[in-house]
């Protein structure tokens, strides 16, 4: 027996592989510091949990409409004015998380042979879903020297007559980089000139430590060629609820709904009521969450820069640090992947190799700092001691 060849085109997320290895060490009695997984350590706000439970008690246990609850679609459309996007319920489609919307957007927009510009380093699922949809991923670089902002000239150089989609992710996983308003305006002009779609992954939009940028979809004419992908996982600490959405031209929402009827049917009804409470209720838990992340970011960046051979820029968004460890790799002869594996096996500290995000991540680690302060301090101490012991051996 054999499976369909298309399954071989799927990639994966190393975060889950490393999490599995960390869990094995824990089962053997070790205390592992988890800096590998991009998940808020705080719980979902109580009023959101209550809204979900109330919905269940009130009998919201049936199928919802495939595109989502009208009230939630409307609330999402209204919330987008915060990023400069003027849109309506008919433009919004709800999915169980942002990831299914990425998947559906790839299937909806990419024809065989289409080239899709993907950030490198970048969220590995982009490349995976592009290949699954028979497209060809074309990497564009995000460089440390430009604070990991998208390099518009480098993107322009990679556009060919076959380029169909540009995937943007601001703030960016794994680097925390953002794009300036000028970058976004130039990217929008490129998209218009070359008739490109933009898939704008904005799942970290609320997790910005300076002024929040507008969405690229806010720029004139861009709503017609952009699919915004966002969700409730990161900002509202709702990873396990599975709630996300896409915002797109209304003509695309119809076929997208048919795609959803074919694979998801709909998103859990009570979860959508919880999402409605998250959007319409008090936002102070989000503000507290972002403020506490900022303090943790500063702790981690300072701790990393205090380690000989490590340099780390201060990321303006998301909840990841992306330190440059190339000096340590050169000194020890380890590859990035070996460094991360040995750090876990010998110092019980789980991080991701930058190469988990494509070849452009080489020479870096990704650390999620959305975890308790005491664990961050322990992880930094372990990293420092382990690096020192390595230097002593080499
Ligand atoms: N996009 C990016 C850049 C992410 O980092 C993640 C989660 O790690 C997602 C999308 C998926 O989020 P969700 O939990 O809403 O599926």
Describe the protein's architecture and organization:
The protein has helices spanning 14-27, 46-57, 70-79, 98-109, 124-132, 152-157, 181-194, 250-263, 269-280, 284-305, 326-332, 336-347, 373-393, and strands at residues 33-34, 92-95, 115-120, 136-141, 163-169, 197-201, 226-231, 244-247, 320-321, 349-350, 352-353, 365-368. The chain has 2 domains: 5-43 and 284-393, Alpha-Beta Complex (Aspartate Aminotransferase, domain 1); 46-280, Type I PLP-dependent aspartate aminotransferase-like (Major domain) (Aspartate Aminotransferase, domain 2, 3-Layer(aba) Sandwich), CATH 3.40.640. The protein has a 7-stranded mixed β-sheet, with helices on both faces. The N and C termini lie far apart (49 Å). With 394 residues, it is an alpha/beta fold. The protein is 42% helix and 13% strand. Pyridoxal-5'-phosphate (PLP) is lined by residues 38, 97-99, 123, 169, 173, 201, 203, 231, 233, 239, 244.
- Based on the coordinates given, report the CATH architecture of the largest domain: 3-Layer(aba) Sandwich
SSE ordering: HEHHEHEHEHEHEEEHHHEHHEEEH
What characterizes the major β-sheet?
7 strands, mixed
The share of residues in extended strands comes to 5-15%
Average pLDDT works out at: 96
Highlighted features:
Aspartate Aminotransferase, domain 2; single chain; binds pyridoxal-5'-phosphate; three-stranded antiparallel sheet; Aspartate Aminotransferase, domain 1; 394 residues; seven-stranded mixed sheet; alpha/beta
Any chance you could write out the topology, listing elements then pairs?
Blueprint: H1 14-27, E1 33-34, H2 46-57, H3 70-79, E2 92-95, H4 98-109, E3 115-120, H5 124-132, E4 136-141, H6 152-157, E5 163-169, H7 181-194, E6 197-201, E7 226-231, E8 244-247, H8 250-263, H9 269-280, H10 284-305, E9 320-321, H11 326-332, H12 336-347, E10 349-350, E11 352-353, E12 365-368, H13 373-393
Parallel strand pairs: 1-10, 3-4, 3-5, 5-6, 6-7
Antiparallel strand pairs: 2-8, 7-8, 9-12, 11-12
This protein binds pyridoxal-5'-phosphate.
Pyridoxal-5'-phosphate is lined by residues 38, 97-99, 123, 169, 173, 201, 203, 231, 233, 239, 244.
